Amino acid sequence: MTAWELFSNGFSVLTDPYTLLMVIFAIIVGTIFGALPGVSATMAVALGLPFTYSMQPIPAIVFLVAVYCSSITGGSITAILFKIPGVPSSAPTTFDGYPMAQRGEAGKALGIALGSSAIGGLVSALAMLFLSPQLTQAALSFSASDIFAITFMGLSILTCLDSKNILRTLISGLLGLLLACVGQDPMYAVQRLTFGSSELIAGLEMIPVLIGIFAVTEVLKQTKKRDKILNDGTNTSVNTKMPSLKEWWGIKWLLARCSIIGTIIGILPGAGATIASFLCYSTETKISKHPEKFGTGIIDGVAASETANNAATGGAMVPLLSLGIPGGNAAAVMMSALVLKGVQLGPLLLVNQPQYLSATFASMVVTNILMVIVAIAIAKVFAQILAVPYSFLGPIIIMLAIIGSYATNMSIADVKIMAIAGVLGLIISACKFNSAALILGLVLGVICEGNFSRAYTISRADIVGMFSRPVAGSIMAVSILLLVWPIISQMFKRNKD
């Protein structure tokens, strides 16, 4: 079956009113799930599974794909408005989205986030339809050392997060890497930094730490502002104005770059949307003409993060459909549901059941288009919450933080971790260290360590051999250059002076 036949057959499926209604319902459900703190994309898909038990295979696929895509987008709403990343991949969105909301530009930040999400999702859907075999083969050629080099390049953003306090930023990043080592070693099963606690054997759960450092810390900081607490909300105005066409045109190349990088990262097994969003944010910080503005509230940072994490959703579907290998946790949950429906995932899917591939593609395209309309309506309602007096809003945020942390594993230990992370975030802020660098080290540290251990074992403890591959060697060389560039640039400036 040709690509055009898959294209037309996929959209013919969505002409059925029942299937289209399922897509709209799934977008609403996924967006709300994604906006709730602690409900990751994986959990959103898992919560959507019961709805599919009575459905036929094609409506079930369409429903789950719509929930998956919209939940990633929904996470940006609370990330921008309340500095609570609804899903881990929305953590970089808080770096610039929340400062924009604080300046009264919540509508612009939300518009950029939702529009960028749609563009990233559409690009990845087209890549899934036309380039699945080629992209799958390229992804399979990546070794553990290659993936380690890619994630290490993401860590090289540490030198650009705060150019005025590079030392404090590096210390914050190293602290994040240290926290990533808590728990049982993935290769040798040795317990590290658990202090005899069985609750820490599995390591630090990502969502409670994110909620604590972002949401709880922000509430604690706001309580010190007496005028903020006493404000009754009557003089608070929330601007829900959407971004202009000129602003969209100014980030056109950023959207193209992050869509491509996000799709490729999504294809790599074990990488996923979180790695994609952090890597694209770091990439744009490095190549931007004004890197010092990142983190202060610019649309480039929001667009980079949201384009990448939604592009990764389509990328994760490529190895799932082509080889039966899920690209991430959410894709693994979808795989179990599709197998129960009789879908034969793998190379023969295009031959024996092409209607399922075409339905997946069409649902991704339609979801990413309708998602903007639905999510903007939901986001405008959420934006009005900013007008609520902070004496009411603060406790509500803390309540949501506790619920979101507990819901991750139904464990009170995660609530304790969230509370400790909140206090740690306040200390870090008071000492002028960088919480974004800490989160970057924590998120990428787990992936870095796992892939480094595998590559080190495969190469039989030969460090040079690990990076003898062209991809790994070249990426590591670029990463090291980026890390030392601030020092080199300062030397050049001194010589000129």
In short, what is this structure?
With 497 residues, the protein is mainly alpha-helical. The chain contains 23 helices and 2 strands. Helix content is 75%, strand content 1%.
Structure commentary:
The chain is 75% helix and 1% strand. A hairpin with a 6-residue loop joins strand 1 (183-184) and strand 2. Helix 3 (41-52) packs antiparallel against helix 4 (57-82). The protein has one domain (3-496). The chain is built from 23 helices and two strands. The protein is an all-alpha fold. It is globular. Strands 1-2 form a two-stranded antiparallel ribbon.
List the helices and strands and how they pair.
Layout: H1 3-13, H2 17-35, H3 41-52, H4 57-82, H5 91-102, H6 106-140, H7 144-155, H8 158-161, H9 166-180, E1 183-184, E2 191-192, H10 206-222, H11 226-230, H12 245-250, H13 252-267, H14 272-287, H15 299-323, H16 329-340, H17 349-352, H18 354-383, H19 390-409, H20 412-430, H21 435-458, H22 463-466, H23 470-496
Antiparallel strand pairs: 1-2
Q: Which keywords apply here?
A:
497 residues, mainly alpha, two-stranded antiparallel sheet, 75% helix, 1% strand
* Average pLDDT metric: 77
Number of domains: 1
Strand ordering within the main sheet: 1-2
Give start-end ranges of low-pLDDT stretches.
232-237
